[in-house]
Amino acid sequence: ELVWFPQAGLGALPIHAAWTPLENGGRHWILEDYAIRYAPSVRALLRTAAESKPTQALVVSDPRGDLKFAVFECAWIRAALPSSVHATVLEGSAATAEEVLKALPKASLAHFTTHALFDLKDPFESALILAHAQRITLDTLLPLLRESPPAMVVLSACESAQSRVTGIVDEMLGFPAAFLENGTRTVIATLWEVEDSSASILIGRLYEELLKLGKSPAQALRAAQNWLRRLTVGELETLLKDLKNTDCGPAGSLAAKVKAPLRALDPALPAYTHPFYWAAFTASGH
């Protein structure tokens, strides 16, 4: 694993998607050799909690009801969580700011599949978008984090890894820095607006690598990204078929609808090879 401390505007770059050209015209990605962890400062790393297994999970899924593939993501997360982990799942209109703020202090793992807004002028006004157009700003979260920070936070939300550089060139402000500075050990977040289907598939694989295979967050994300960029249409069909055949409610019926058009495509075709689909996600902290 390598730790990258962004300076100035470099926090906007997906360093984990760096590559060198091959003689055959292909690319050799840095993720083939290393897992990349981001950190705003050494101080932030020293403030984080000791490593521990999750005991309480909070899963916030699709509060606005417009993320079609969120049901896949939620189903895969719940399947990966050990039976020893108690999960509070807030889906759709149930994911209000009040309910999220009530459940968050109890969670050692907090996952958000929602929309987010990054405020470049005032990062503390950056917000997670919840049901009924409610928002939880970073400024609102900070008091809760100081008292009881979750050990791991996954922000499967657009631009949640964005940061603003202050007058001090190496001081970054944004969701990852705020969580890390207040004790959270790991933050998974995104640098740009992610595509719904690829994000849900990548997150599902991330949790399998993390919780079932026991990898560190950075190694789990690296494995999930390498897996997604190689995933073929045929393998995607199989993945959806397995989901369709499980008892997972609306995720099963949606999987059947999504799977049908794939039959017309070449099964050997890579489904999500472009970095746009897999490189938005970053691992910050430990």
Question: Summed up, what is this model?
Answer:
The chain is of the alpha/beta class and 286 residues long. Helices cover 34% and strands 20% of the residues.
Descriptive report:
- The protein contains 10 helices and 15 strands.
- It has 286 residues and is α/β, with parallel strands linked by helices.
- The strands form 5 sheets. A 6-stranded mixed sheet has the order 6-5-7-11-14-15, with helices on both faces.
- 34% of the residues lie in helices and 20% in strands.
Q: Major sheet: size, sense and barrel closure?
A: 6 strands, mixed
Number of helices: 10
According to DSSP, the number of beta strands is: 15
Secondary-structure element series: EEEEHEHEHEEEEHEEEHEHHHHHE
Major sheet strand order: 6-5-7-11-14-15
User: Multimeric state of these chains?
Assistant: single chain
Write the layout of secondary structure elements.
Blueprint: E1 2-4, E2 19-21, E3 27-29, E4 36-38, H1 42-47, E5 56-61, H2 70-80, E6 86-91, H3 97-103, E7 109-113, E8 115-117, E9 127-129, E10 135-137, H4 138-147, E11 152-156, E12 164-165, E13 172-173, H5 175-181, E14 186-190, H6 196-212, H7 217-230, H8 233-244, H9 250-259, H10 275-278, E15 281-285
Parallel strand pairs: 1-4, 5-6, 5-7, 7-11, 11-14
Antiparallel strand pairs: 2-3, 8-9, 9-10, 12-13, 14-15
